[in-house]
């Protein structure tokens, strides 16, 4: 009975923790923005404006999203990230938080077994993909060759993409790790894997 109760508590915690953490971070950011801007707005307008922190946080997130969607913005973000990674203490915190966010948004990262190169959508054009598993069931029964499942992610958001079923002989295995492959995709090809 106690073991089952403990399992329920752990499951409930696992389900609630991402939501609670997200709400906490958003509320903290709104409070920081509100406390930074409220005195200035009070001086300019002569009164407090309620909800200013929420509005400004929303606008900030929207502007960063717009900037991040264009090529110049991606380069600026990549440049800023490289600067942060060079600062010893900040590097540790930043990399940890980034890995945590990746773990939350890329829930099943371990499903990617290998980084592969495939000629897709036609010969002579190469796509980076992640081998997920061998073709099984009806798919394998109805194909004359052994096929594998390859997930082709989109740039800069590797959580979306497409699944292709491709003959095993038509893929090229790469030496890079899954993490290096994800960095290459998220950066739009601007962050090449470091050679050992």
UniProtKB/TrEMBL annotation:
Pfam families: DUF502. Keywords: Membrane, Transmembrane, Transmembrane helix. It comes from the Bacteria. This is DUF502 domain-containing protein. The chain crosses the membrane at residues 7-30, 50-68. It comes from Orenia metallireducens.
